[in-house]
Amino acid sequence: MNIRMVGRLGVSAMSVAILAAILPVAAGCGSVAAGPDGGGTAGSGATAGTTGSGGTTGSGGMAGGRGGAGGTGGSGGAAGMFTPTRDVDILFMIDNSSSTELLQENLRNNFPTFMTTLQASPGGLPNIHLAVITSDMGAGDGSIAGCDMTGGQQGIFRYIPGASSCTTGLMPNQTYITNIGGVANYTGNLADVFSCIARVGSSGCGFEQPLAAIVRALGADGKAPPAENAGFLRPSALLFIVIVTNEDDCSVPAGSGLFDVASNTTLASALGPPANFRCNEFGHLCNGMKPPRKAPNSSVSDMVTLTGCTSAEQSGMLTPVATFVSQLRALKQFPDDQILISAIVGPPTPYTVTWKNAPTTDTGPWPVIAHSCTSTDSSFADPAVRVANLVSAFGTNGLTSGVCDTSYASTFDKLAQALGRALEPPH
């Protein structure tokens, strides 16, 4: 199990809690392997308690409707200082593109460890809101397999069974899990409810846009959240976002032409071949340069390993990571204390470009990003450069772990310990 602390050193209450619970370990999850899909395309509730500001602590409330009961309010204490509560809103973003079945199984199998550890923390289970979304935000004009032109799943919470073999246990008209003071909006075991909802499948768009999905789900992108997501966010609550993906983020601004596959079909076209490498070429800079599209010797045996890779930000075609950071921070009065982000992803290094034979007539081989880790169960992941940049922007409140780890149990155990310590201690 790999958990890596990243970014600046903060001294918020949450930061201290996380540092106490998690030891920094170098990232990395196995050997590099250029797999067959390496970069190819896929073939209303009421408002909870308001946040207090200035002198008095904000009062709590009850959130009804779609999500269920709201928790206790009041993160604004005397002089506008942050006051922890027992409320936490947890959002899981799960990659549902092809080749993610094994990582999803790992997630579902080990999520009970997260719940067991959280329930064993001082004060027991907090007042919890728990929701699941996918990375599918569509792409292009609808001609790319698995990608529609209407925004995919649009950050809408999943609340129906992900498989015929399970039932969610959610009560009617409930779109996410709640358990407030022991009053739940589901029957049965919370981990079982989550497991059923988290069966998101692997037929989603292969141009994953997890960061766009997150801000859309939370209404952080300047528009109201989907109706199904109403009431999820509580102003006083801790926001805990967990990103689980085996590829990097490829979120684009509205109207982007990055996914055009009508006129951009070859190495010589402006955007290059219609494959996931576009997300790298127009989303990353490695020591200030784009990853190379053309093989140095026009050979499928060519291999180029790059260093210093980061999000291209304003010089690329993807939505800058800084935009997502700003949008998420704006959700909370005390973002340094109220937002915790964890990413279970491929390590950003090694970053290696390889090439494969073009599936159609072209002037040379097509570029592919080699996997930066491979698990013992044959699952794999590519360098999550942009996701790592997002996590690092939250300093010691940002946590990364390896998606290629054989088991996520240890990861979930330590995340739950950190979360438990960041919450208001029991009285």
How does this structure look, described?
With 427 residues, this protein is of the alpha/beta class. It has helices spanning 13-21, 101-120, 190-197, 210-217, 277-281, 321-329, 335-338, 385-392, 409-422; strands at residues 3-5, 87-94, 127-134, 177-180, 183-184, 238-244, 284-286, 303-306, 309-311, 339-345, 351-356, 366-369, 373-374, 380-381, 398-402. The strands form 4 sheets. The chain has an 8-stranded mixed β-sheet with strand order 1-15-10-6-2-3-4-5, sandwiched between helices. The protein has a 3-stranded antiparallel β-sheet with strand order 8-11-12, with no helix packed on it. It has a two-stranded antiparallel sheet with strand order 7-9. Strand 4 and strand 5 form a beta hairpin. Helix 2 packs antiparallel against helix 3 (190-197). The longest helix is centred in the first third of the chain and has 20 residues, at 101-120. The protein is globular. Residues 1-11, 15-65 and 67-74 have low confidence and may be disordered.
Strand line-up in the sheet with most strands: 1-15-10-6-2-3-4-5
Number of strands: 15
> What spatial form do the alpha-carbon principal axes imply?
globular
Order of helices and strands: EHEHEEEHHEHEEEHHEEEEEHEH
The rounded Rg comes to 21 Å
Mean pLDDT level: 85
Q: Please report the number of helical segments.
A: 9
Helix content: 10-25%
How are the elements arranged and paired?
Layout: E1 3-5, H1 13-21, E2 87-94, H2 101-120, E3 127-134, E4 177-180, E5 183-184, H3 190-197, H4 210-217, E6 238-244, H5 277-281, E7 284-286, E8 303-306, E9 309-311, H6 321-329, H7 335-338, E10 339-345, E11 351-356, E12 366-369, E13 373-374, E14 380-381, H8 385-392, E15 398-402, H9 409-422
Parallel strand pairs: 2-3, 2-6, 6-10, 10-15
Antiparallel strand pairs: 1-15, 3-4, 4-5, 7-9, 8-11, 11-12, 13-14
Helix pairs in contact: 1-9, 2-3, 2-9, 6-8
